[in-house]
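ok trying this again, last paste got cut off
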Amino acid sequence: MIREKKHRLDPEFYIGKKTVSFLACIKNREAVFTNKFIFAIFRNKLLDALDKFNCEALIYLFMPDHLHLILEGVSENSNVIKAINLFKQKSGFWFAQNMCSSKWQKDYYDHIIRSNENLKSHIYKILNNPVRAGLTKHWKDYEYKGSTVYDFNKWS
């Protein structure tokens, strides 16, 4: 039996007041997040998962075939890894019920953002993803983004 190489930190590293950047992709890079209806469904599933595990989304940005997130635990019992796992489970079930050919890739990428890293530069890099992809001329014009903490309309 071949075992996958462990690539995730132990679960306790994701508990508490942690800030973690995630990237989750749609299998076969299928363009799924291309309309307001789908975006609203997945945003609501994300917000429900964050609420359950006492987390905030500093940013969520749905590109057509992947999702960028920076999640932050707001208390000692917050759990960002459980929040993203619940979100992927619930949204994966929605895929199975409504878009049978679409699904998430098996895993996702994560990066724990340390206190000495520039958080706003991480957020701006994500905000500019649709610009680099040619989907919009300015990140403010891209509709499929949000935050439970920041009002991006006030950002320059």
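PB: full thing came through this time. The chain has one domain: 18-151.
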